[in-house]
Amino acid sequence: MAYNFDFYSPTEVVFGRDTPSKVGQYINKYHGHKILIVYGSDRVRQNGLMDVITKALADDSLTYKMLGGVVPNPRLSKVYEGITLGKRMGADFILAVGGGSVIDTAKAIAYGLAEPNEDVWTLFAHQRTAKACLPVASVLTIAAAGSETSMGSVITDEKTKEKRAYDDDLARPKFAIMDPELTLSVSDYQTECGATDIMMHTMERYFTNGGNMAITDAIAEGLLRTVKTNAQVLHANPQLYEARAEMMWAGSLSHNNLTGCGNDGGDFATHMLEHELSGMFDITHGAGLAAIWPTWARYVYQDDLPRFISFAQNVMGVTDKGSGEMIALTGIAKMVQFYHAIGMPATISELGITLTDDQCHTLAHNCAVAAGGKKGSAKVLYENDMYQIYKKASEA
């Protein structure tokens, strides 16, 4: 039986070659005047992208200031820095030039500027809900997080090592400029971490215990097969525009909730487990997801066996005959083979991390607290379940 759902995806997507030169006209369309540009590394300056963007803004009589230095697992301190700069310049529009970390930072800054008398971290600590948010848009430079069309933002308080998410439709970007050519210079490691994140956003919505619709499953399975294929293509030949285009569009579709319509809201336990791990060790998000998922899958598959059988057959191409349990386990094993084929880890130990028992308990406790005591749909996980997954993934 399909569950009721409300699908809301208002972001205008501007896709294809040379689209960054149109950024000024789109900001004008959405009534921006004073633009705070948020970006990460100097790569966007060195490759000429920032020159294209600033020229486009000047051509449309828009003023701007820049905030660089956003890093993976984006930091709360950078958000506060952006809020201070935005207040000083009177920013009324936030433009993210980069990937998920940059876009998430831009969203957090936009919340902070819209409610200047509130501490933005209280949103991510789930102590209140947002009442306003400045408009946000992006020029995407990596296919990964899907933040360019999603309601989500994830920020790390580097002082406490807490990595927390806040989801609100107020922060959905007004538009996303997506030129696949901008991803041609992304390293193989970051490309494959991105592919892992894209797939996981879909898999979190796929492995549920109720409300699945055939059309949603078909979209999800097709997306997963497409990303799986093109991740391997790009691992061998990173300069193929067509494969980059497939990955970029898949990243947006994976996280605007299209692949979750009609289900119970999704599982997202793997994401919660990874957030604590990367909060403690500052690892790349996609690699952390790959390191946790196989252990999570082996821990929960018996509670969601029909979905794991469908995944094995329709995504991983398992044709073996035998028990449903054997088919499910073969699908999980093939996913591990895929991770290794594109240079991703499949255990925490493969990240070069050996968790102590105390660390496993700390991670599990913090994850359970952040999740409100429990998390999951394929199997509802409590603190001890989380501990067991951390422990097994570290020992494997």
List the main descriptive attributes of the protein structure presented here.
globular; 2 domains; Rossmann fold; 396 residues; 6-stranded parallel β-sheet; 8 strands; alpha/beta; two-stranded antiparallel sheet; Dehydroquinate synthase-like, alpha domain
Tell me the fraction of residues in β-strands, as a range: 5-15%
The count of strands amounts to: 8
Please name the CATH topology of the largest domain: Dehydroquinate synthase-like, alpha domain
- What is the succession of H and E elements? EHEHHEHEHHEEEEHHHHHHHHH
Low-confidence parts, pLDDT < 50 over ≥5 residues? none
CATH superfamily of the largest domain: Dehydroquinate synthase-like - alpha domain
Question: What does this molecule look like?
Answer:
Helix content is 49%, strand content 11%. With 396 residues, it is of the alpha/beta class. The chain folds into two domains: 12-182, Rossmann fold, CATH 3.40.50.1970; 188-395, Dehydroquinate synthase-like - alpha domain (Dehydroquinate synthase-like, alpha domain, Up-down Bundle). A six-stranded parallel beta sheet has the order 1-8-5-4-2-3, with helices on both faces. Strands 6-7 form a two-stranded antiparallel sheet. It starts with 11 loop residues before the first strand and ends with a helix. Residues 195-393 form the Fe-containing alcohol dehydrogenase-like C-terminal domain. Residues 10-180 form the Alcohol dehydrogenase iron-type/glycerol dehydrogenase GldA domain.
